[in-house]
Amino acid sequence: MTRVFIPRYPGVLCALGLLMADISLNYSQAVMAQLHEQGALSTIRTALMIGYENAQADLSAEGIADNDRIFIPSLDMRYVGQAYELNIPYSQDLDLASAFHEAHHQAYGHALPDRSIEVVTARLTAIGMVAHPNIQPEKMGNNPSADDAWLGDKTTSKGEQLRLYDRDKLPIGAVITGGALIFQLDSTIYIPAGWRAICDTFRNLILEQI
What are the pLDDT digits (tens) for 181-191? Predict the structure, then answer.
């Protein structure tokens, strides 16, 4: 390994990703109806509506606006007597039997058009889209020196000489040659001898072996 990427906030990167991720909620409702049975489509739609109503309430509780909501319905389906299902995307104008036969053929190389089809479970995935920060690159100044970020020097117990830096004060384009320690609130970054760190336009650090 001769190159390492260190993001702007390495100590809280996962937490930051969690806050920026869209909300995804999953709902399921048992159906257990055969397509040829009278009232099967009504049973399916009722099961999906239960998920839809629950999803609307949960997304409202999360503060998601109506126009930031996406709903993805699907059905777990199988031939009667099978012990496994295929998940089929659902829409009101979809020919469910044809869609299932085709999906079964794609998955297993054959279909059983004379076999009854059973809908086992109605599923709904609800997505609440959240606002994402618009992170733009910064421009490099006239003096990309790391001198203003220098905190002093330190000798380790093993005799290694380290230069100490405050990451928040590093300008775009600054280059730090190891051995060095770079401090920030959520992390401490060690740059060994024979490596250098470059602060890019998004304030990430790119470590490269010299």
Answer: 999 999 999 99
